[in-house]
Structure formats: C-alpha cells, structure tokens
Design a protein that fits this description.
Chains A, B: Belongs to the class IV-like SAM-binding methyltransferase superfamily. RNA methyltransferase TrmH family. Two copies of one chain form a homodimer. Chain A is of the alpha/beta class. The first copy, chain A, is built from ten helices and twelve strands. At the A-B interface, helix 6 and helix 10 of A face helix 6 and helix 10 of B.
C-alpha cells in the first residue's frame, strides 16, 4: 500500500484541488470526506478511484480496504485534506457522473432553480432521497453538488438518488411532452395551499432561489404553484424545510 | 450621537464579548447583527440597549434611529463586530429575556431536547414561528438561542415567539398536570406515522438530539412517538427538516 506522510506531496497537492469547482470541471473528479459518506460510496459500489485513510481510521473500519487504490496517509495529511475542523481520517476521489434523463419519466423529481446555499442544497438532496424521489435536477444556476458543504449536507445521498444538471426550461419541454405535471413554489396570487394537493405519482417539484424564488418564466409554465400557509410572524421558511414539507406531502 | 471608529475602543471590546456564552450569562445581554434581524427587533419594540450602525447603513435605513442609544461606527468597527464575512453595518445589544411559563398552557409548543447544531436550532425556532407555535422550550442541554449561528438561523423569530429555557422532565409534569399531550419523535417500535396524527390544538412536540434522538426517560413519558416514513435509502432526515414536517402536520 502506498504511504504518504507529507501534506506537500504532489499527489496530495493534486487531490486537494478536487475540492474546487474549477478543478472538478477539468478532471471530472471530486474529493469526498467522512466515514458515513465513504461507507455509503462503498455500499453503493461507486467507482472510487482512490481512497485515502489514516491507520487509526483503517484499523477501526476494515471495510475501507476494497477493490480500489488505497493510500495510507498520516494524521497531518488528513488534517490538511479535511474541510471540517475535526477530520474523520478518510477521503475518496470519485468521478463526477453526468447521467442523461431516462426516455420515460416516472416517479417524483426535485428541480433546483438557482439555489445558492450549498448546505441547503445538500439537505434538499438528502430529503429527496429520504422521501423516495427518483432524481434531482440541478438547474444551470444552482450551486454545485460537489461543493464541500453540499457534500456534507447530502450525507452520501448522491449514491442513492441520481443527480442531473440541466437547463430547466429545456427540461420542462421534456416533462411536458410526457404529461408529467410540474409543481412550482411561490407566494402570492394564483397559488394553492400544499395541503390541497397530492399525493401525486409522477411529477416534478421546483424549488426556487432562497431570496427571490423561482425564475418567472418557469413559474408561468407550471401546472400549479404551491405555498405553505404561514400563520405566525416569520416572513418565510428556510428553503430546505419548505421543500421537505412539500416533498413529503406530494410523494407519500 | 456617539461615534466610534476604532475596533480597539473599550466599548467595542466589551460589546464583542456579548457573542460569547460566558459573557452573555454574566451580563444577561447578547449581540445581534443584520438588517432584517434588527428591523424585526425595532418592529417588536424589543428593549434595545444600544444600536451600532455605520453611516452608509443608517443613510439607507433611517428606521435604525429610535428610542435607544445609537452609536455611529466606522466600517472597520463593523467588520470587527461581524460574525459573517460580509457585514451588514448594523448591530444591537439586547437583553436576554427569561420568561416563565404561563399558568395555563395553550397552543402548540416545541421542545428542544439536547440539540447541538446552532444553525439547526435557529431554523427550528424560525419554523415554529412560521407554523404559528406559541413557544419554544430549550432543554437544559440544548445549544444557546444566543449563539451567533442560532441568531442567524432564527432571522428575528425570537421577537415573535417566546423562548424558554427549562428542565424538560420538570416541564413534562407541568404539561401533564394540564392534560396537554406531548408528542415525541423516534424511530423504531411503538411509533406512529406522522400522517396518522393531527391536527391537534394544544400540544407539545419534542425534537431530540441530531445523532442520538430524545432522552430515553422523556421518550417513555410521551403520549405518542411519531416517525416520518423514509421510503428512500437515506438513513435519516435533517433535524430541522423533520421538525418542519411534523410542526406543519400537527398544527394546521
């Protein structure tokens, strides 16, 4: 097994770059960290390119040895690679997959229109996974699924649910051609309380930007736009909480 | 109006300490930041002790002048006080209120048992506010409502909904004496799907620790324990998302 004990090692220098969108795009690879996340990757037989692990973490988790290149790293290297203050001693280099939409659309789909908070987006994917959704479509302006904070929020859900990146107006035509209803989320006129809708079998639910909501052209093209009645004094709900309420209402 | 342009000024040195729990406990004061948050404080006529604002922010928001001491601060002071990278140029020193429970318990109550993530806790309070809850009770082991990250998550909801700090086992006796049902949240046996419960008029909903759930003695003393059916492969839901789903189910 290869052993690396210096954070200045060239392999480490290249691997740490895979936390940045720029290098992720160039290499089509990302760096994942955390015991739970990497356990999910192994369980899902994800095509791990390299797994980097400290001796302590490997001793406690022998499943981190598998059909992939394993590099034993020092605590100093682990600390250097980690995005969090307390690192968990395990990292993996994984390919960024770019699946294409199935020919026949079935099930529940979450669309993310211009969401900017990576932690929120991670939680949204994790919630869609928990609610049994089929796929999540990241609109062109939505923050990356491979941002370190998105990855932390997803907790490995990228290994359970397919993530797509697409222009949402183009995707709308694909869904409409198959008569799949698209539900938007909005405040104001011409909206329906979420309690008056669902459950639905095949559909898309669109969540908009944290501050500005959905793009107006997309909002106009939906079958119905849903709101969550706010009976208190808060102006709005957190985007991930609102989406969670809607996902568990529409898809039961 | 008093003007402070140096971060080394003694008043500023004392004020910045009010971000730390230790000094918050000693002084019974906390430091709040952000335009939205402080607008909510002013709207609610909260007893602001001092408001600190930059000239630029004050010019754009004349409502930041009111019946309280206002200190004009330089951009350097604002940057120094801010908890976020991009400061909004306005801060307020506010008292930490310690309300006592009403004699007659009415409405919907959220109990937080040993929650540790301040961002999550802030979102939980904001969601309880949006859902029209009456109060939030912080169990003794739950993270402070006045942690800078909790404050950011609450977005000013502390001015709409009463926040209590109490021993939850003692509070349980108070609620039980008035026949107020207490709903817990748990996975496993003897739990009921959230879809089979509610809406309820007067009740308490208990959310447990992010990793370990509710304290066992509390869990045993509830009227029913609810779960959210997970149909996908995610192991669990984010605590704030789960609580949001339950709050909007129980209190309609």
């Amino acid at each position: 097994m290869k052993i690396i004990d210096s954070p200045k090692n060239d392999t480490i220098k290249n691997i740490i770059k895979l936390k940045q969108t720029k290098y992720q795009k160039k290499e089509r690879l990302y760096l994942l960290e955390g015991r739970h996340e990497i356990t999910e990757a192994i369980k899902a037989q994800a095509p791990i390119q390299q797994l980097l692990v400290t001796q302590t973490t490997l001793d406690a988790n022998p499943t981190f040895l598998g059909d992939f290149e394993t590099i034993l790293i020092s605590d100093a290297v682990s600390k250097h690679l980690a995005d969090t203050k307390t690192d968990q001693g395990v990292f993996a280099v994984l390919p960024i997959l770019t699946p294409t939409l199935p020919t026949t659309i079935k099930g529940a789909w979450l669309w993310l229109d211009d969401l900017q908070d990576p932690g929120n987006v991670g939680t949204l994917v994790r919630t869609a996974d928990a609610a049994g959704f089929t796929g999540v479509i990241f609109g062109s302006n939505t923050v990356s699924a491979y941002h370190p904070k998105t990855l932390r929020g997803m907790q490995g859900s990228q290994f359970h649910i397919a993530l797509y990146k697409a222009d949402l107006m183009a995707t709308l035509l694909t869904f409409k051609a198959q008569n799949i209803p698209i539900y938007g989320t909005a405040l104001g006129d011409n909206t329906v309380s979420f309690r008056d809708v669902g459950p639905v079998t095949d559909f898309a639910l669109v969540i908009g930007n944290e501050g500005n909501g959905m793009a107006p052209d997309l909002l106009k093209a939906t079958i119905q736009n849903l709101y969550i009645p706010i009976t208190g004094a808060a102006e709005s709900l957190n985007a991930a909480v609102a989406a969670g309420i809607l996902m568990f209402q529409l898809h039961q």
